[in-house]
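Lab notebook, bench 4. Continuing the backlog of folding jobs that were queued last week. Each job is logged with the same field layout so the records can be merged later without manual cleanup. Today's entry covers Bifunctional ligase/repressor BirA, a 323-residue chain. Filled in by technician R.K.

JOB TYPE: sequence-to-structure
TARGET: Bifunctional ligase/repressor BirA
LENGTH: 323
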Amino acid sequence: MQESILHMLREQPGGFVSGEAMCQACGVSRTAIWKHIKELQDAGYEIEAVRNKGYRLVQSPDLVTASEIRDGLRTSLLGQSIVYHETIDSTNTMAQKLALNGAPEGTLVIADEQTAGRGRRGRNWFSPPHSGVWMSLILRPQLPVAHAAQITLVTAVAMARALTRLTGVEAGIKWPNDILFDKRKCCGILTEMHAEFDQVHHLVLGIGINVNVPQEQFPEELQSIATSLQGVKGVPIPRAEVVRAVMEELEPLYRRYVDGGGFASIREDWKRSNITLGRQIVAQTARGPITGEALDIDEFGVLLVRREDGETEKIYSADILFA
Ligand code: BTX
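JOB STATUS: finished
OUTPUT FIELD FOLLOWS
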């Protein structure tokens, strides 16, 4: 009901919607409408009520609730089902549970705050309230296990495009899962998999974006390595808009990838947005550090590094440090 009311108010930007029109559209009494308006005001929506004119939406709070995201979302798969929590340990953990219980592909789990947000290899992901996008998508691609990591690369292309569009500043991909603005990380991707034999059952694609996190709010150890979209653009960006932009950029790339194109069909797009190739790097792999020049990425998303002794190494998984 509140979603319908908000939708009607948004359809009349700056103008009034009469109480009568709302009653008719929603099939409830004026008192019921008033009660919902009151609840919306309590949630932070600034709604003006004028006798004989009706209601007018003056300002929306920066929320990532299902209704804020859904209004204006132009996708047919991603985000068609949205699960919102104000506070949660990790949206990836919740998405795993929902996926095991049969949640459909494209389900989006999102929270205002995470108390145990995680990165790769058990690292923490700083996820304060009211200022970031902490979300996970449930995907069910027909993929062999060996290809699952490519989803991270496909997502990185979508993220770089969305964040460049939102800020007007070029975002760069650092292989495999970071999006940077001028060497500082504003987004991380964590893909987790549930698989049996060689077939993926589902993937949980976790995405963390620092949207309006004030720089001074980052903990000491992140001060010099993290940034947020607000810091890059100079003004805050509504978080629901960020979510929609990501969903809308990702959906066509994901479809191209799963409908037979594979990573080979995304590779050139990845290369255009990357800031990894051509640089001297240290790849911290499970086998130890590998130092050399990041030469290329192959059609499977594997990073090729020319070592100092001239040999080329294939890197399947690593943390990359720029030398
Ligand atoms: P990662 O392992 O590549 O990066 C983690 C590292 O990034 C940390 O060790 C720290 O140095 C740095 N870091 C931590 N928090 C931030 C931050 N807010 N901004 C910039 N740098 C940071 C990256 O892992 C993958 C992160 C995915 C996070 C999403 S949020 C929604 C979903 N749920 C969940 O628990 N994780 C994912």
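OBSERVATION: The first helix runs from residue 2 to 11.
SIGNED: R.K.
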